[in-house]
Design brief:
The structure holds two protein chains of two kinds.
Chain A (H helix, E strand, L loop, with lengths): L1 E6 L4 H11 L2 E3 L11 E7 L8 E4 L2 E5 L4 H6 L1 H7 L2 H6 L5 H4 L4 H6 L6 H8 L3 E4 L3 E4 H6 L8 E7 L3 E8 L6 E10 L2 E7 L6 E2 L1 H5 L9 H14 L10 H20 L1
Parallel strand pairs in A: 1-3, 2-3
Antiparallel strand pairs in A: 4-5, 5-8, 6-7, 6-8, 9-10, 10-11, 11-12
Helix pairs in contact in A: 10-11
Chain B lengths: L1 E6 L2 E6 L6 H7 L18 E4 L2 E4 L12 E3 L5 H13 L9 H14 L5 H7 L11 H15 L1
Parallel strand pairs in B: 1-5
Antiparallel strand pairs in B: 1-2, 3-4, 3-5
Classes of the chains: A alpha+beta, B alpha+beta.
Chain lengths: 262, 151
């Protein structure tokens, strides 16, 4: 990653103006971005803005764009609202050092296929609050990045959603070969799978097989897990073949559903 | 651009390129105890404390450290030397390249978990790779070091 100028805005509005007027690049944690071969004129450091928080506001959980993966992993607010699912989804992201700098805004904006947390955000039907552009569902964002200038301020999630996360990796701190998250949202069950190896995708048809029951039967769980593997597409890469991912998908989704319903 | 960082308690000023990484700035300034390994934030040998929090300095833009405190293993000299004695005693000291990063991370872990379980130690240190020892020696050394520290 190369840039010629680094600016440190004093407000979100000022940061956004650099994006609009100079096509500047926003720096989240910078951990993944710095490995990019990109070269830009201006980068914007968001670290001095008040975007690092995790808090409850009524029924909503708000995660600021500069909250780190370690913040998410250790947050008492998230543990109270969702149990240990965020800890499980974050704890294998490289090492504690990287988790101390990886930001949620950067994780989402990068639409990284290997992201564990984006898969969980997708299952939880999270919404992004975009500066000057209202809210956008993460499902839409991960499917296709908007063309307009973008500054993610925070992530919103309904609190108290029952959910579970599973992944398979070659070693504890390696990137996932595949990950899966399930959640019982107010609109019904959602199933999301990531590291396919592209960005996470949901499987609405498979989730529909679970109905709205809080505790679907084992038969329905197995059927939904198998249907997820059929509904989604997979590709081969250095970490695994498409066939392997499809096989593992059914297993991870079944385990996640079993955990979420137990 | 000019930045000022307090390194191991002493304020230092640097003229850097905006995209320079912290590990490079530190090493160029003589803090060669900050090692460079994978250069992707995965191996932990470049670990330093930023305002007390362990970060991979190879993956952190130096400009962001402006106005902050950075601690290398040189800033934890006596504590690191104490840990090193246990590493040697337990045969976990082969090439030593990973040791500065381990010492920094152990220091941070001790603050967060004064009496960690084996699982907590393994999890907290999972981002510090060692190509020599197989980790069992380090586990024994770290546990003995913590026991002695807490005694």
């Amino acid at each position: 990653m190369e840039f010629s100028h680094l600016v440190r805005p004093r407000s979100v509005e000022e940061a956004y103006s650099y994006v609009v007027e100079r096509n500047a690049l926003l720096l989240g944690g910078g951990a993944w971005l710095r490995m990019s071969p990109r070269s830009v004129e201006t980068a914007v450091d968001l670290s001095s803005l008040d975007l690092r928080y995790i808090r409850q506001s009524g029924q909503l959980i708000e995660i600021g764009a500069m909250a780190t993966a370690r913040d998410v992993e250790t947050s008492a607010v998230l543990e109270h609202a969702f149990g240990d699912v965020f800890r499980h989804a974050a704890e294998n992201i490289v090492g504690v050092q990287m988790r101390n700098i990886v930001s949620m805004g950067g994780t989402i904006a990068g639409r990284f296929g290997f992201s564990d947390l984006n898969t969980l955000f997708l299952a939880l039907d999270a919404h992004l609050v975009l500066h000057s552009a209202g809210e956008l569902g993460i499902e839409s964002f991960l499917a296709k990045a908007p063309k307009f200038p973008l500054l993610i301020e925070k992530v919103l999630i309904d609190s108290g959603i029952r959910s579970a996360f599973k992944s398979v990796r070659n070693t504890a701190t390696d990137l996932p070969i595949l990950n899966a998250a399930v959640a019982l949202t107010p609109k019904g069950w959602r199933i999301a799978v990531g590291a396919r190896p592209g960005p996470a995708r949901s499987a609405p048809n498979a989730a529909h097989l679970l109905g709205s029951a809080e505790t679907p039967s084992d038969e329905h769980i197995v059927a939904a897990a198998r249907a997820t593997a059929e509904e989604l597409s997979f590709r081969s890469d250095i970490r695994g073949t498409a066939e392997y991912r499809r096989s593992v998908c059914a297993v991870l989704v079944r385990r996640a559903l079993t955990e979420a319903t137990s | 651009m000019n930045i000022t960082i307090t390194i191991n308690g002493r304020e230092r000023s640097f003229d850097i390129r905006p995209a320079d990484m912290l590990a490079d700035v530190l090493r160029d300034a003589g803090f060669v105890e900050v090692k460079k390994g994978c250069d992707t934030g995965s191996c932990g040998v470049c670990t330093v404390l930023l305002d007390g929090t362990p970060i991979p300095s190879c993956s952190y833009f130096a400009a962001r450290a402006d106005g902050h405190e950075v601690t290398t293993v040189g800033g934890l000299a006596s504590e690191a030397a104490e840990l090193a004695e246990y590493l040697v005693a337990e045969g976990a000291d082969q090439c030593g390249f990973c040791a500065p990063g381990f010492a920094i991370t152990v220091h941070a872990m001790k603050k967060e978990f004064p009496s960690p379980t084996d699982e907590q130690i393994r999890h907290y240190l999972a981002g510090n790779l060692c190509r020599c020892s197989g980790y069992e020696g380090q586990m024994r050394a770290i546990k003995r070091y913590l026991e002695a520290s807490n005694a």
